[in-house]
């Protein structure tokens, strides 16, 4: 093995285990899906990638998708192909229940057994502090690589190398790692330790490796967009595998001669890339798409199979690695006994996916509503905020029983709930600063979940704004002081930490949520209008009424739109439920929505209702002009949480009342109209999201599901 500037003297060898097909249940054709023969010329190198296990031995939503099966296939491929290497890309130690319990030591044992050629360190390797991270790196029997992290003295993070080489068959391969440049803000990385620019670090790594190796790869833990930037600005780099983003490419991409492949994280996909060593070009590839046939419903089809390079693999037909299965059982048995029992029944599906970055979710409302119950405050905590990145399992739960393990998988970090006194000005600064604007890999996002507060948000052209901010249903007073519940991770990385800390609860979020849910019969959290996306603001709506209906007409942002999503239109007040129209249509640059007069009058009758007509439209990419590194227009909206942009038109309440002077509220509506008291906000109370059959109805607008925009 060639010497590298960061070599620590450890002899890393690529250990290929060959599973017998009879024992492993894996024939050569099934492992590769028949895409290509495993017999290759010696002038190729094959990369099998990646790891990104989040400290899990199994998928949070389906235990049949697990590490032992995933590795059995990876190891079979590694044994079949000449010059093959298994490459990891980090975030292997956490976040998960097991990661929290064992601080990543369980995954070091597993990875030592799997013997990857190298693993690029990710941000979650540092979740438990630099000392724990160093200990885990130093007890590893394989190299961790990360080129852009340095100590205050300019040395590699102890236990890691910036780059290294390994031999696989007849090929010598150079590998380096890259981590996101936001290391200081997203994990427990010391403030005085260095984070280098990715391009500069990659250029340094390639310069050190080229001439001594046949092939150079980056085991990446940076975002999709950052990978394009690196590829386009670093010559001599053959391949980038993995990423920070968890994105699943349909096919590898090429930028400036560098192949970039991202095939998700955890146990859903496995990539195989075979390169010609003479040209550095990709000659064969496949993406294995794992699924559990036992979990498919009637009429459901397996994932993948839409291309000869996408190979569906039923995990029921894969015999897992027995050593890893035994290891997983030993680590999980005690936790299963303690936390595996149901703690509450959910009447609705709980969305713990990465949608929590992009849209308000019922689960996000539940978490933040419960956070407002911490401590013993009178008259209570005003607002709770939860960072979307702290909701981790990327899984849907229910309807049905929710276990303690489910909750800990959703909230796996050692994040303590804290309460701060914060000025209204700082609270506004926080929610506005949390918005992630376009351009960005995942589109505009509020990036938090909230309780006790509602607002409109906008994020375009690198700028953000929030409007119509209400706390407890009342306009935000920037000179007022509010009690805000959050976790210490958020407080330590935002303006919330500049307020006065009133309570350090001593309770991590996961165990706290378990305690709060135990003893409740059911929960039924849904969505309302706590965070309203506004991409375009148009002229105020005109109002016409006939006594039974009210018709609102608003101009459409014709230059910004290519069509309209009429079933998304509704009128939103500052507090309480929104109202959906009986019908909606669009023509001649106008949208028309007709409402039940009594329902709309109910909203208009409250004090200062701040009525707004909001609804979706299909964005025109040319109008917005967002481009990728190749100069092409970005398809909008890029976030999986959205299928459209949203417009807003203000609605004058006095005009609504004048137009409906002859409308008479129904008996039910008359009874309901007197329920709001001064300072109350239906749907924003500390217990709003936990109501169920035993706890009462959830008080605000129930949109159809968590995929609807909000």
From TrEMBL:
<dbReference type="InterPro" id="IPR006179">
    <property type="entry name" value="5_nucleotidase/apyrase"/>
</dbReference>
<dbReference type="Pfam" id="PF02872">
    <property type="entry name" value="5_nucleotid_C"/>
</dbReference>
<feature type="domain" description="5'-Nucleotidase C-terminal">
    <location>
        <begin position="353"/>
        <end position="491"/>
    </location>
</feature>
<dbReference type="InterPro" id="IPR036907">
    <property type="entry name" value="5'-Nucleotdase_C_sf"/>
</dbReference>
<dbReference type="InterPro" id="IPR029052">
    <property type="entry name" value="Metallo-depent_PP-like"/>
</dbReference>
<dbReference type="InterPro" id="IPR008334">
    <property type="entry name" value="5'-Nucleotdase_C"/>
</dbReference>
<dbReference type="InterPro" id="IPR006311">
    <property type="entry name" value="TAT_signal"/>
</dbReference>
<protein>
    <submittedName>
        <fullName>Bifunctional metallophosphatase/5'-nucleotidase</fullName>
    </submittedName>
</protein>
<dbReference type="GO" id="GO:0009166">
    <property type="term" value="P:nucleotide catabolic process"/>
</dbReference>
<dbReference type="GO" id="GO:0016787">
    <property type="term" value="F:hydrolase activity"/>
</dbReference>
<feature type="region of interest" description="Disordered">
    <location>
        <begin position="663"/>
        <end position="688"/>
    </location>
</feature>
């Amino acid at each position: 093995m060639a010497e590298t500037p960061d070599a620590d003297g450890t002899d890393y060898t690529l250990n290929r285990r060959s599973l017998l097909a009879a024992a492993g249940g894996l024939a050569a054709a099934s492992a590769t899906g028949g895409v290509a023969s495993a017999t290759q010329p010696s002038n190729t190198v094959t990369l099998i990638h990646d790891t990104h296990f989040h400290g899990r031995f199994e998928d949070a939503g389906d235990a049949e998708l697990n590490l032992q099966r995933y590795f059995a296939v990876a190891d079979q491929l590694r044994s079949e192909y000449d010059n093959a290497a298994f490459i990891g890309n980090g975030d292997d130690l956490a976040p998960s229940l097991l990661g929290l319990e064992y601080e990543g030591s369980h995954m070091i044992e597993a990875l030592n057994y799997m013997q990857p050629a190298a693993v690029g360190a990710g941000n979650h390797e540092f979740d438990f502090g630099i000392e724990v991270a160093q200990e885990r790196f130093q007890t590893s029997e394989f190299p961790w690589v990360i080129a852009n992290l340095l100590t205050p003295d300019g040395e590699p993070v102890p236990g890691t190398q910036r780059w290294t080489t390994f031999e696989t068959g007849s090929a010598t391969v150079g590998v380096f790692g890259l981590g996101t440049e936001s290391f200081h803000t997203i994990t427990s990385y010391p403030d005085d330790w260095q984070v280098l620019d990715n391009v500069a670090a990659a250029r340094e790594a390639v310069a050190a490796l080229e001439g001594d190796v046949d092939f150079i790869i980056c085991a990446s833990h940076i975002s999709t967009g950052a990978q394009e930037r690196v590829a386009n600005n670093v010559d001599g780099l053959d391949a980038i595998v993995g990423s920070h983003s968890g994105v699943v490419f349909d096919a590898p991409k090429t930028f400036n001669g560098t192949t970039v492949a991202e095939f998700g994280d955890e146990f859903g996909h496995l990539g195989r890339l075979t390169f010609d060593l003479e040209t550095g070009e990709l000659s064969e590839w496949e993406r294995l798409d794992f699924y559990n046939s036992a979990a498919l419903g009637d009429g459901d089809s397996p994932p993948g199979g839409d291309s000869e390079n996408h190979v569906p693999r039923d995990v029921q037909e894969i015999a897992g690695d027995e050593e890893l299965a035994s290891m997983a059982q030993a680590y999980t048995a005690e936790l299963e006994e303690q936390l595996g029992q149901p703690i509450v029944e959910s009447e609705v599906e709980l969305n713990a996916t990465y949608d929590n970055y992009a849209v308000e979710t019922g689960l996000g409302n539940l978490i933040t509503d419960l956070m407002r119950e911490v401590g013993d405050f009178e008259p209570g905590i005003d607002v709770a905020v939860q960072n979307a990145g702290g909701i981790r399992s990327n899984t849907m739960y229910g309807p049905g029983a929710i276990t303690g393990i489910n909750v800990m998988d959703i909230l796996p970090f050692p994040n303590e709930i804290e309460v701060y006194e914060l000025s209204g000005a700082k609270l506004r600064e926080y929610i506005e600063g949390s918005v992630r604007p376009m351009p960005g890999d995942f589109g505009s996002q509020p990036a938090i979940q909230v309780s006790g507060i509602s607002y409109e948000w906008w994020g375009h052209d690198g700028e953000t704004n929030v409007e119509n901010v209400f706390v407890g249903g009342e306009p935000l007073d920037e000179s007022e002081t509010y009690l805000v519940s959050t976790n210490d991770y958020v407080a330590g990385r935002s303006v919330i930490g500049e307020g006065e800390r009133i309570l350090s609860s001593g309770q991590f979020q996961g165990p706290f949520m378990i305690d709060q849910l135990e003893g409740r019969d059911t929960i039924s959290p849904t969505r309302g209008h706590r965070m309203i996306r506004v991409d375009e603001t148009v002229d105020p709506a005109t109002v016409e009424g006939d006594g039974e209906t009210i018709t609102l007409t608003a101009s459409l942002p014709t230059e910004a739109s290519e069509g309209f999503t009429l079933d998304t239109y509704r009128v939103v007040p500052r507090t309480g439920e929104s109202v959906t129209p009986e019908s909606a249509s669009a023509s001649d640059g106008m949208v028309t929505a007709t409402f039940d007069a009594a329902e709309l009058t109910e909203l208009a009758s409250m004090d200062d209702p701040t009525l707004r007509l909001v609804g979706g439209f299909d964005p025109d990419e040319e109008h917005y002009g967002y481009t990728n590194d190749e100069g092409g227009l970005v398809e909008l909206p890029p976030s999986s949480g959205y299928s459209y942009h949203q417009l807003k038109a203000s609605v004058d309440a006095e005009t609504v009342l004048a137009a409906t002077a002859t409308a008479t509220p129904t008996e039910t509506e008359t009874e309901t109209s007197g329920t709001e008291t001064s300072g109350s906000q239906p749907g924003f109370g500390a217990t709003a999201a936990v109501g169920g059959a035993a706890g009462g109805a959830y008080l605000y607008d129930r949109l159809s599901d968590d995929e609807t925009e909000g």
